[in-house]
Amino acid sequence: MILTVTLNTALDITYRVPALVPHASHRVEEVAERPGGKGLNVARVLAALGHEAVVTGFAGGPSGEVLRARLAELAPVDELVPIAGATRRTIAVVDAVSGDTTQLNEPGPLVSPAEWDAFVATYGRLLDGAEAVALCGSLPPGLPVGAYAQLVRQARTAKVPVLLDTSGEALRRGIAARPDLVKPNADELAQLTGSREPLRAARDARRRGAHTVVASLGAEGMLAASPEGLWQAAPPAAVRGNPTGAGDSAVAGLLSGLVEGLDWPGRLTRAVALSAATVLAPAAGEFDFAAYEKMLGSVRVTEHAH
Amino acid sequence: MILTVTLNTALDITYRVPALVPHASHRVEEVAERPGGKGLNVARVLAALGHEAVVTGFAGGPSGEVLRARLAELAPVDELVPIAGATRRTIAVVDAVSGDTTQLNEPGPLVSPAEWDAFVATYGRLLDGAEAVALCGSLPPGLPVGAYAQLVRQARTAKVPVLLDTSGEALRRGIAARPDLVKPNADELAQLTGSREPLRAARDARRRGAHTVVASLGAEGMLAASPEGLWQAAPPAAVRGNPTGAGDSAVAGLLSGLVEGLDWPGRLTRAVALSAATVLAPAAGEFDFAAYEKMLGSVRVTEHAH
């Protein structure tokens, strides 16, 4: 079983309008709701790849109930911890004509110390049966700033490989607890290290505590800096589409590859192919399985000198 | 008791953002939720004026549950009829800097014939104790096109004065059933009659079946065309602020004035003062009671020749 943690889950709502015009009134033509948050996306992709995926984190309020009801229809196992506050909503307003998306993200619910304690207990129990764990996304208000550092240490103590995919202060503090893997994008990596030069920045991030750094570089693919070596994997050509969820699919590729014992080139190939197949899928956060399988054969992996 | 009907209730959500930028991502700074729909707004104002107000219509789904929970904290009595579909949400995105609002309105839930029958029975029971009834807003999908005509006839049979405040085809069909009062704004009146000349259009609307037509004309105040005469009431000066809910406050002014036996100049004065006090209130759909009382003394009413 692979465990994913989403402390700030979201009910993702998509509105289709002809075109968003500021300060005008819009009749929404189509409403879609899906359970969201990075770890939930990762778990869905893991399940599609044939892995047993369990999701934990927090859910509460009416939006949390809807999230759990929708999650029950999907493959990942729901081990979310109930909270008094309401799960945040995100609204993606899609212009029907251009396909462009305007995003409105609510802040997360306030999590109490008792709710955090309940989560930590659940997490400890779930780590027992986990082959790997991914800690994904932002921290809701109320959590200790060192929350991810604590969860990384708990995983290391339980000898479960742990991937951290977050940004800003949460990444800075979490990385110091020595996760097996971090997966920043170019912006997150630059924010962490101050460098926009991927190789230099990835090496810097490793010095800050990450065993391996896999940086996602958009059209340039992904760069892995690990104790075993340095690899870069790229799709055959830039893919066009909706990049929402592409990073989460990459995390699922890395984690499933790790659990299946693939080497770094194999893991990167899978991550890049999944990421591209997600960009190509019409619905945000879904991936095109046929495109994924086709892409697997055409991802180019190059090894860099140490 | 005054009854208000809102067939397409809404959970009104307000998001505060620094400024809405199309195709960008926004962190919502503040989220507010309130029970919405025109009849619910009318009932809140009626209650603030000291009247017992009862609301009916439809509510369902998670958004309907939130709406009812919030309504329970307010004065109006909840007689909403449960439905399987989910109450629509409306999202008002307010730019913190300019105060400008971008509106996103979900379509209403599909109402089944059995749910409509259940509503008609509830409505009949509530008419029994009502001094007046207001039928407010749009029709959700699934209702018969003649829904308002049926409710107008039911009120007339029960000898309960009935006000219809809707637009488009729902107004066109409802007015033919001879409601005591319709309250279109200038656009709705023009759409109904084809005329942008208020006096001519109001007379035309009376010929179409309304006993009295009260047209709300924005800064020019309100015009009443009734069998007793023609009056226009205007605020002393144009008021600046958020016009959301101003029309609903006017409906509350007209209905409460009717029930209290005020003459037309008295009813119009109250409607105009409430409307202006709503525009002046900082929160959309609320009204400033002190401004209302002050305004009452300064509304100018003029009588037109027949």
UniProtKB/TrEMBL annotation, chains A, B:
SUPFAM superfamilies tied to this protein: Ribokinase-like
Carbohydrate kinase PfkB domain mapped to chain residues: 14-285
Domain of life where this protein originates: Bacteria
Pfam families: PfkB
Entries under Gene3D superfamilies matching the protein: 3.40.1190.20
Keywords per UniProt: ATP-binding, Kinase, Nucleotide-binding, Transferase
InterPro entries in the record: Carboh/pur_kinase_PfkB_CS, PfkB_dom, Ribokinase-like, Tagatose/fructose_Pkinase
PROSITE patterns: PFKB_KINASES_1 (PS00583), PFKB_KINASES_2 (PS00584)
NCBIfam families in UniProt: 1-PFK (TIGR03168)
Family label: Belongs to the carbohydrate kinase PfkB family.
Protein name: 1-phosphofructokinase family hexose kinase
Organism: Streptomyces mauvecolor
Lineage: Bacteria, Bacillati, Actinomycetota, Actinomycetes, Kitasatosporales
